[in-house]
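Hi F.,

I've been meaning to write this up properly since the lab meeting, where we talked about keeping a consistent format for the predictions we share between groups. The idea is simple: the sequence comes first, exactly as it goes in, then the structure tokens exactly as they come out, then a line or two of notes. No screenshots and no reformatting. I'm using this chain as the first example so we have something concrete to point to.
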Amino acid sequence: MSGFYLWLESVGSLLASQDSTARIWTIGDGPCNSTIQRRTPNVLVLKPLESRATEEHKDVTTLDWNVNFLLVIFVDLYFSGCLVREPCLQQVLTKAKSEYGTDMWNKIGDYLLSGSVDRTAVVWNVKSGKPKQQFEFPAVVLDVDWQNNDSFAVGSIDNMIYICKVGENRPVKRFSGHKNEVNAVKWDPSGSLLASCSDDTTVKIWNMEQDVFLHDFREHRKETYTIKWSPTGAGTSNPNQQLLLASGSFDCTVNLWDVEQGRLLHTLNGHSPNGQYLASGSVDTCMNIWSVKEAKIVKTYNGDGIIFEVCWNKEGNKVAACFSNNKVCVFDIRL
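Output, unedited:
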């Protein structure tokens, strides 16, 4: 599996694409200065005509919406990102001679956090388009995630997890326990539990009250590279539903975890905004829609490139996917 973005937590009906800047369209109206190719009745493939990227630096790798319908997209290793509000470009965020690996909005959408292979994490002021604070770490930053509006977690190649706060020059807490690089860190919707996954194949659950992990999930057989909480439980619009965690691994499975009980709930084997469905994308060019309740695939869409990431809209009826062939597709799963 190449990447997955599960359950619906995003907002808006806009889309971004590839050319080392960022492009955004209203899906119903079509793009400006671009060509729409309709491969199937329920899929829009948007491809801009103009590009400032070289052939080796065109991949669309990250899609991320914030609560104000702004989008940031980190396109290639040497370009930071663009912030867009319909229908105009708002800001271009750049940091010279730096490679960005991950990005994340804070809860209210006024700060953007980016992690980098230059061993830094930068908090950006969205309004000014300038860095508010830069944090330095001993090793490459692989992932970042906000706990609230001013505190965040950092996963690093040095096997460590760092908890940082805007205004503080040093991490306020450190978690150790992984035996290999930490590929992803994600806070649950309430901000009380932190999940992490690693090349050591494990998924671990932490909280700020203790220094050791609460749970150590070891069912994956190969490197675990991505995780996502369900939009259920405390802090969500579905407080009475069970909180779940999904993890994706290079063993070609997605595992669903019951975090409260500390056990594996389902293993979804598919590839070589109500929490009921999960979307996954893969190197085999397929995007699968899963039923969480039945633990099976209910729909499969075939693309024409490796899928880097997938993302639901707020209504839960469309999924965007970014491909290695410089395209972003929107799938209407109702059709």
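Notes:
The first strand starts at residue 14 and ends at 16.
The radius of gyration is 19 Å.

If this format works for you, I'll send the rest the same way.

G.
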